[in-house]
Design brief:
By secondary structure, the chain is an alpha/beta fold. It has helices spanning 12-25, 39-45, 51-59, 83-92, 116-119, 164-179, 195-208, 221-230, 242-255, 294-306, 311-326, 344-355, and strands spanning 2-8, 31-34, 62-67, 97-103, 123-129, 141-143, 155-157, 184-189, 215-220, 237-240, 263-267, 273-277, 329-330, 340-341. The strands form three sheets. It has a ten-stranded mixed β-sheet with strand order 2-1-3-12-11-4-5-10-8-9, sandwiched between helices. Strand 1 (2-8), helix 1 (12-25) and strand 2 form a beta-alpha-beta unit. The longest helix has 16 residues, at 164-179. It is globular, with a radius of gyration of 20 Å. It binds 3-isopropylmalic acid and magnesium ion. The site of magnesium ion (MG) has 2 residues, from helix 9.
């Protein structure tokens, strides 16, 4: 089993190292190869997604990804910015289905900014479409001012767009995922205002006819954002577009105590996938050894489950994570009084120890 390891920027390298440690401790025959991506790749090779890195990702059975982005690249042309690496990987590899589970571990109930009774037992799954929508729609750009002077552009624009097949395939993913859970799907849209999302809703309803055993309801994105902090446990599977999914998954992550706990899987039509924490590169805390590696470690577990067909190993990792939480070990983001504060490396080591 070949795994491409792409650490990236900011805290990316620190957290990926811990996930790699955990993977190696499983004793499976995994071939891991590392390549630069994001700002780190731009600095080393002049491009955020060098051809050699893309090829490694294409040839691998699965990809373990850290995070990309750093303020120091904010002034680069957009096509050279670190974020283009992850967007390019998603698009080039056809990773259209993004799974972002938000589970509140009992030990972390007090780390959430919401009242314990609202989040205790929370287990929702956000399914975000990942290769369409306003992220990729054309045309986009800045309209050049009449004097031809780019910095003086008079307007900027992006195109929100979805095709029928794009909506159909993500809707199928959501209904099938719901069948393995509580058989409920909430489709989040903005059909009251946007043509793109009226179409989204219409197509989701059409697809739902093939899943009479799954209950479907619809919610506007603004209401969904509100309901997520009002009564999050009312949700089970949420399916939505790329942009709304980006925003709602960050919001949902805080229900679990910390965005540092949220793994993700981005899958193509054949379950080949890229696995990354839902959080970003956090350059403000990079190099301090305080980042939480658990989202990345849990992403590695998802990788074993979805792409490498190693359910047992996936569960070993998840149980090891539960066990370190039960031992009271906490990185800074999930620390609360009465628990033991540990560094990134100590957390990784503790998971390895619990595995054994
Ligand atoms: C995410 C991130 C990315 C996104 C950025 C880094 C391009 O926020 O994976 O949620 O917007 O999709
Ligand atoms: Mg995001």
């Amino acid at each position: 089993m070949k795994i491409a390891v792409l650490p990236g920027d900011g805290i990316g390298p620190e957290i990926v190292v811990e996930a790699v440690k955990v993977l190696r401790a499983l004793g499976l025959s995994l071939e891991l190869e590392t390549a630069p991506v994001g700002g780190a790749a731009y600095a080393a090779l002049g491009h955020p997604l060098p051809a050699s890195t893309l090829k490694l990702a294409q040839d691998a059975d699965a990809i373990l990804f850290g995070a990309v982005g750093d303020w120091k690249y904010d002034t680069l042309d957009r096509h050279l910015r670190p974020e283009q690496a992850i967007l390019g990987l998603r698009k080039n590899l056809g990773l259209f289905a993004n799974f972002r589970p938000a589970i509140c571990y009992p030990e972390l109930v007090n780390a959430s900014s919401l009242k314990p009774e609202l989040v205790s037992g929370l287990d929702i799954l956000i399914i975000r479409e990942l290769t369409g929508d306003i992220y990729f729609g054309q045309p986009r750009g800045r309209r050049i001012a009449t004097d031809g002077n780019f910095p003086d552009a008079e307007e900027a624009f992006d195109t929100m767009r979805y095709s029928r097949p794009e909506i159909e395939r993500i809707a199928h993913v959501a209904f099938q995922a719901a069948r393995k859970r509580s058989k409920r799907v909430t489709s989040v849209d903005k059909s009251n205002v946007l043509e793109t999302f009226q179409f989204w809703k219409d197509v989701v309803i059409e697809v739902s006819e093939q899943y009479p055993d799954v209950a479907l309801d619809h919610m506007y994105v603004d209401n969904a954002a509100m309901q997520l902090v009002k009564a999050p446990k009312k949700f089970d599977v949420i399916v939505t577009g790329n942009m709304f999914g980006d925003i709602l998954s960050d919001e949902a992550s805080m229900l679990t105590g910390s965005i540092g706990m949220l793994p993700s899987a981005s899958l193509d039509a054949n379950s080949k996938g890229l696995y990354e924490p839902s959080h970003g590169s956090a350059p403000d805390i990079a190099g301090q050894g305080i980042a939480n590696p658990l989202a990345t470690i849990l992403s590695a577990a998802m990788m074993l489950r979805f792409s490498l067909n190693q359910e047992e190993a996936a569960q070993r990792i998840e149980n090891a994570v539960k066990s370190v939480l039960a031992q009271g070990l906490r990185t800074a983001d999930i620390y609360s009084e009465g628990t033991t504060r540990v560094s990134t490396i100590e957390m990784g080591n503790a998971v390895v120890k619990a595995l054994r």
